[in-house]
């Protein structure tokens, strides 16, 4: 329990990566953690498309950035000053932050708990990645990366079924900075004992 608890306390989103690709053994452990995530009714409906092709990831990341239209940060409302997100810095053109590995989580379009199942799998994989010394960041609204003819071509190439859609991406890689992101203080008053 203590190792799992320490990993939960330690994990932070990483948006700056080394160009070095993660190892195959580490990738398989991360994927296994996703496969063992809880899912509604035990359906195990999440599909994981792993892309380690830098050119494809760069292009899909740019498409996602162009289609994201995030509400931009202000001086008092922002995602991260240490590792800016696309909402914090309009000069960031790749929504995947140049991560060497991008896993797109696909779920059934008509299933009631698709988003939740994908989020659970992503959380398991982020915790596994952190335990292995690999940085990660959850990128929501996954379908935006496929919202042009190139994205549609990639879906066909990957043989993604028409009844599935991209819920999110999980970007993975070795952190570029040796210094860990500073954890934000926990806000008080969020636990109600009723």
Radius of gyration: 17 Å
- What's the helix count? 5
Mean pLDDT: 95
Strand order of the largest sheet: 1-2-4-3
Helix content: 25-40%
Oligomerization status of the protein chains:
single chain
Beginning-to-end CA distance, first to last residue: 27 Å
Uncertain stretches of 5 or more adjacent residues: none
For the biggest sheet, the summary is: 4 strands, antiparallel
By DSSP, the count of extended strands is 4
The ordered H/E elements are: HHEHEHEHE
Q: Could you tell me the strand content as a percent range?
A: 5-15%
Approximate shape: globular
Classification by helices and strands: alpha+beta
Which terms summarize this structure?
194 residues; alpha+beta; four-stranded antiparallel β-sheet; 4 strands; 32% helix; 14% strand; globular
Give a written overview of the molecule.
The protein is α+β, with helices and mostly antiparallel strands and 194 residues long. The protein is 32% helix and 14% strand. The protein is built from five helices and four strands, in the order H-H-E-H-E-H-E-H-E. Strands 1-2-4-3 form a four-stranded antiparallel β-sheet. Helix 1 crosses helix 4 and helix 2 runs antiparallel to helix 4. The longest helix has 18 residues. The chain is globular and about 45 Å long.
Produce a short descriptive summary.
With 194 residues, the chain is an alpha+beta fold. Helices cover 32% and strands 14% of the residues.
């Amino acid at each position: 329990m203590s190792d799992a608890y320490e990993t939960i306390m330690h994990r932070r989103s990483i948006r700056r990566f080394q160009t070095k690709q993660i190892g195959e053994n580490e990738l398989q452990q991360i994927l296994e953690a996703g496969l063992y995530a809880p899912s509604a009714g035990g359906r195990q409906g999440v599909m994981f498309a792993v892309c380690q092709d830098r050119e494809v990831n760069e292009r899909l990341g740019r498409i996602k950035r162009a289609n994201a239209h995030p509400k931009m940060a202000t001086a008092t409302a922002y995602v991260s000053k240490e590792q800016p997100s696309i909402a914090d810095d309009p000069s960031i053109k790749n929504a995947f932050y140049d991560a060497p590995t991008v896993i797109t989580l696909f779920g059934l379009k008509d299933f009631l708990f698709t988003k939740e199942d994908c989020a659970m799998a992503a959380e398991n994989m982020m915790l596994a990645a952190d335990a292995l010394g690999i940085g990660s960041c959850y990128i929501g609204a996954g379908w935006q990366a496929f919202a042009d003819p190139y994205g549609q071509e990639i879906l066909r190439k990957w043989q993604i079924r028409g009844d599935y859609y991209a819920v999110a991406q999980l970007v993975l890689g070795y952190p570029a900075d040796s210094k860990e992101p500073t954890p934000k203080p926990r806000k008080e008053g969020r636990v109600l004992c009723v």
